[in-house]
Amino acid sequence: MAVVAAAALVAVVAPINGSADAAVCSSGTSASNVFGAATGWTEFVEGNGSRGSESEGTVAYGGNLPTGMTLGTRLTGFAASSPSLVVAGSHGSGYNLQYGSAYVTPKSGVNFNGGSGTGYLNANPIDFATAFTDLRATSTAWGSAASTGTVTSGTTGGNAAIVLTGTNASLNVFNLSAGDAAALASGKHLGLSVPGGATTIINVPGATPTIAGQAWLGSGSSWNQASDGNIKGAYAGLVWNFPAATAVTISYGAAFPGTILAPNAAVTIASAGHTIGQILAKSFSSNYETHLNTFPSTACVPSPPSSPGTSDVTVTKSASVASPHGGDTVTYTLTAKNVGDATATGVVIRDELPSGVTYVSSSSPCTQAAGVVSCSVGSLAAGASTSVTVTVTANPIAGAGPVSHPQANHWLTPYKAEAQVDLEPGQQRTITLSCTGGDILSDGQFRVDHVDQGTGAITDVKVLSAQTTALGTWKGVIRNDATGRAQAKAFIVCLPARTEAADRQTGYADSHQHALSADAALVTTTQSYGAGRSTASLTCPTGTVAIAPGFELSSAAATLAGSETTQANPRVWTFVLDATSSVTATFSARCLRTTTSAVLGHTHELLFTHVVQTVTVPGSTAAEGNEFQVICPDDGKGVVATFELPPGVTSFGNDPRLKARAFRLFNQTSTAKTATLDLVCLKDRTSTEQMGTTDPVPVVNTATVTSTSVDANSGNNSASATITVQPGSTTAGFVGSARVAGSRLSMRLVSSMPGAAVVKATVRGKVMALGKVKLKAGGVVTAKVKLTKVGKRLARQGKVRVKLDPSRGRTVVKTLRVTR
User: Fold this and answer.
1) Do 521 and 638 sit in the same domain of this protein?
2) Confidence check: pLDDT of 406 > 60
3) Is residue 17 packed enough to be buried (19+ CB in 10 Å), middle (13-18) or exposed (0-12)?
């Protein structure tokens, strides 16, 4: 096993798709950060690179990288100041860095899209020479490991294949023979039958191996083609190891799964839908995307773990109640552990409490200021752990209230963004567009405009992908197969993260706004389709509508002939695919919640209109297609375009004008055809107030841990716990204990509704304090009510029964501890 120097671990990146904890090893040895400084990097290359498409993860080159590219589209939550792009040699321009910071010299050519805290780094965080010394030792050690699985000839998906079968839940090693390698080079497919979550190492012999064909997962007669949907996460531990190779060529007909460990080789992706794993190579050349699927930070491997000497602190978090009601007490337990091999010093656990909970207390040595809890726990020996607790009150959520005002609604302001796309002959480009801040992407497409006269047709421009990659981000892949230059446009439509301010004077915070929200996870399906017309449907959960329809094709052998939803069932999105030969397609949609967030005890509904238009496409289509417009009503904006086309008619996109869409259709037959064009229109205003809510509200609380010692893996330093607060008739509650100060009894109250409340404190039926207080919707107030004559002895009682009777909602009674 490689001996990894501490200096080489400074820039270790969190393995975002990899598991943080491996299963108990029934075979091999459990090891952390086995790739050393390369841990978590999607592309980690000792020398030069030549790239023609995006990388979903982090990228580090010890040499030159002359081509700009889009980077880090899947790094949601990546720390702003952490390195996600490193080029130690010369670099190009046009790097679109979605998250994190960059080391390049000179400091130029990078567009930082990750917000505050991102920017250029002053020093190279990676010692590439040391890192590759370690990677070569690891590759050699794994290459000499004993085989634990079987290699046989078989059939996968109807194709002749080399079938690798392993049964161990922790570690499977396959040592291919020269004959196996030659069979793969000739185009034989690969069948992989191993347990999900296990480390799987495929050792490939030879100095210049080629891997062709396609990969399949399964067993017996049941095989599924490898794709993001079945590889990411479950097969993060899949590694192709080339210990003797000086040149590796991948020539695949679809996605290539697994990490490529070839530290002595020039790796070339000659063809592939994309790669799904890390690239650890001497040099790297690819015009295809590298998708994020990093090797787990802890895994079972065939050789001992890295040498001791580095601490590695991690944190876990849990909540005492998963589904509290408003006013209930919840205790979070935060456990910091040192999973490294040396003592961690200056360990601090930090918990920044989110909105939706209110601080009550915390265990020693924690302190709280402005909702941030800090716990300085000191040193942790290797393997040691310590726990602290933070107690909070779950803020109430109104489940009932008065009728709404007939004019209480909010404006909504969708908007669009676009970019011109120029394509040289044979060029393939990946375009990324983003909404502002936390806004929600509802649609994104290409529109093909023109091919230079006499050098090809508009049909020579192929759209291979158009899909949302994060809540407000869209990515498209387009290729020009004409012999001349082509022009196109990429555009997106965005929904605001929040409504505008309320339309009427409510008497309680006229400037309030409501948040729009969508499910973070997409609904997706990935399938292989034969020649002809096929359909696929996606369904969103109740209370949502489908938006941001997207697709990704493994080749240009298919086109999208339909992308459709209906007014009657807006939760379902149906895609229609026309294919000339077999193709793998991934379809996706995001689910937008139709109810806004609850503010001041009420919500609003988003209102939609679906405009459907039937058009006739002439048999003699113009060279650049015929244009058809679909227009929203005066009170709406177009947020998602839909269509269904007959065979022989192709869509070359549409142009968003918010009120309208201009569709461009091309009829490849000589006969007029009828097509259906639709536009989902979001009304300019929400519904009126809906007092209360029936929807639970998830509250995500994230804790972090840091240390003053060198930390081997900064990517495992945070953990979250989610509670789901249930709505009810209770709209107000108590926070913590009561306190006697002079002639007043004070206590903290939290409310989901504005208004007033009567507070009455008693001990054994005697009134100790009585008064009226104002409540702050969505916030905490300190109520001070006057003590009665008998109540002046309250401080000696220790406990008091307090009745809170709000003007909106149910009366709440609770026994509180009394302090001075």
Assistant:
1) yes
2) no
3) buried
The amino acid that residue 149 corresponds to is G
Candidate from 296-310, 602-616, 639-653 with smallest mean pLDDT? 296-310
State pTM to two decimals: 0.53
Contact 235, 257 (CB under 8 A): yes
Task: Tell me whether residue 207 is in a domain.
Answer: yes
User: What percent of the chain has pLDDT above 70?
Assistant: 94
Q: Is residue 743 part of a domain?
A: yes
Cα–Cα distance for residue pair 257/164, rounded to 1 Å? 14
Which CATH number fits the domain that encloses residue 347?
A: 2.60.40.1530
The structure tokens 């996460």 sit at: 233
Residues 651 and 768 in one domain: no
pLDDT in tens, 105-128: 999 999 898 888 899 999 999 999
Concatenating the DSSP letter of every residue in 683-710 gives ESB----EES-SS-EEEEEEEEEE-SS-
pLDDT, one tens digit per residue, over 11-21 is 556 565 554 34
The bridge status of strand 313-319 relative to strand 357-362 is unpaired
* Tokens standing for residue 252: 């695949």
* 13 neighbors 41 (Cβ within 8 angstroms): yes
Claim to verify: residue 280 and residue 297 sit in the same structural domain: yes
Please state, rounded to an integer, the average pLDDT across all residues of the chain.
89
What stretch of H or E contains 796? none
E strand segments, 645-754: 649-656, 660-667, 673-683, 690-691, 697-706, 718-725, 732-741, 744-751
**pLDDT tens digit sequence for 348-380:** 999 999 988 999 999 999 999 989 999 999 999
Q: What is the extent of the structural domain holding 642?
A: 415-422+447-494+503-683
> Is the N-terminal amide bond of 656 cis, ω within 30° of 0?
no
**Nearest one of 366, 390, 220, 256 to 317, comparing CA atoms:** 390
Do 338 and 313 contact (CB within 8 A), yes or no?
Answer: yes
Q: Does any domain span residue 243?
A: yes
pLDDT over 90 for what percent of the chain?
Answer: 68
Residues 702 and 675 in one domain: no
* pLDDT higher at 75 or 247: 247
> Per-residue pLDDT averaged across 312-332, rounded?
93
Per-residue CA distances from 368 to 349, 371, 396, 778 (Å): 12, 6, 22, 20
- How far apart CA 316 and CA 305 sit, in angstroms, is 23
Q: Are residues 1 and 304 in contact, defined by beta-carbon separation less than 8 angstroms?
A: yes
Instruction: Confirm if 330 and 317 have CB atoms less than 8 A apart.
Output: no
Helices (H) and strands (E) in the chain, counts: 3, 61
Amino acid of residue 452? D
On whether residue 456 sits in a domain, the answer given is yes
CA 651 – CA 638 distance, rounded (Å) = 18
Sign (positive or negative) of CA dihedral 762, 768, 772, 778: negative
121: left (phi over 0), alpha (psi -120 to 50) or beta: beta
What is the length of the chain? Answer: 820
* Residue-level pLDDT at 504: 53
One domain, residues 755 and 608: no
Return the closest-CA partner of residue 560 out of 432, 450, 467, 692.
467
The encoded tokens of residue 317 equal 């978090």
| Of 544, 688, 685, 545, residue with least CA distance to 603 | 688
DSSP string computed for 11-40: T----SSS-SSPPP-SSSEEEE-TTGGGTT
> Are 473 and 357 in a shared domain?
no
Final residue of a structural domain among 279, 303, 327: 303
DSSP letter at 460 equals G
Of 62, 72, 53, 56, residue with least CA distance to 110: 72
Other C-beta atoms closer than 10 Å to the C-beta of 350 total: 19
pLDDT tens digits for 250-260? 999 889 999 99
